[in-house]
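Chain X:
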Amino acid sequence: MAAPFTDYRDEPIAVGDRVRIAPTRTRRGVPAYLGGEVGVIASLGRSKVTVVLDRYPDRPWVVPPDVLGKVRLGGSPA
């Protein structure tokens, strides 16, 4: 079985979780303007995660999991 995906804080993430793209963690393949955007994990690939962002619901983004932070209750990722 494959290892579970984790966000940049090493917390497990799964399909359906609310996540935020960390502004300071954007990198190759992740445009800087997506930093801070919130969305839902749509699927998990071998090494990347597909996220549907609230602001861009018609454009799923495929990003590495280490640029994501799980959104906790109350909407704060911290």
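Chain Y:
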Amino acid sequence: MTNCTSIQDSMSETIDLTAVQIVFCVLYCLVWVAAIVGNTLVLYVVSFNQVSLSVRSVFIGCLAVSDMLMSLTSLPWTAITIFTREWIFPKLICKLIGVFQGGSIFVSSFTLTVIALDRCLLILKPNKELIGYHRAMAIVVAIWATGYALALPVGIFSRTVSFEGLCGVFCEEIWPDAMESGRSDGRRLYGLSVLLSQFGIPALISSICYWLISRVMSSQLERRRGHTLLKESEEKLVNRKARANRMMIAMVLGFIFAWMPLNAINLYRDWGSVINKPWFSTVFALCHVSAMTSAALNPVIYSWFNPQFRKAIQSLCSGDRKTIKNKYHNDNQVRTPQTQITEVKIKPELVVNDCHQPGDQIL
């Protein structure tokens, strides 16, 4: 294009400053490395160091795959586009990248919700295997199909465009009802549906599930305190409840604080005016980094708070693969009613209670 001006010269923003770009480059790199390393460790442990596959392993593996895909598709591509403020990749990528980004984000959110529901059912119905391995695999397939179906509109309506007087091309969503100002009622409705399905509903369901789990575990602790328990047994119950509460709080707050800023800025973009706002790209980059930290936090929250998983990773780092297999073999057996009874018999101090009450399962 001749007689054109770069977008940086035409509409300068704070993100164009070298110092700001260096700061965000460091942040993006740290999050990217942490997400890739963390989710790779999770995938290795659940895939290659188990004797049998459990329902929880299926969901955690699904979460790790979606977070890995989100790190590969959303982190580098979006960061480069934010820095350059134009589209430097092939035109086909403009259509595909939005689908992969949105799909992996939906899958991650849906999987977090399913994990919360699974743990809630495990606590409320300890003697019923409501979600078996094959049903878990069917749920995972449904999650991926639904997630990518919801992300399809981004790919359908995204295309590269040029603007008169500006150098380069830009990847934009052009909806059929778009006005000259770029506003689109269809885009606004889609943005609201994304806000609800990717953030609002998962956050609400997860909060309710973990609230129910916390209530059941509290009542379980009070019930067992009414019996004559060994001091060591009571300490184990208290420690387990404290660990579970910390994990549940971290799960909900981690999800909310990671994704709320990005959803808020996207809502402002759809319903407000971002034209000639020199701060918008910088704030968007900050919100995007915040959202991407979820891909790095999930392996920590969903793995490190699990003692068996933590020991497996520690054994992996020390090279003791046999220990990893034995730990997972013992952990996976806990889900079936038959092995639950065996587990209670091995620990006679827990038999003094009605051990088949809700909440007696280990989180």
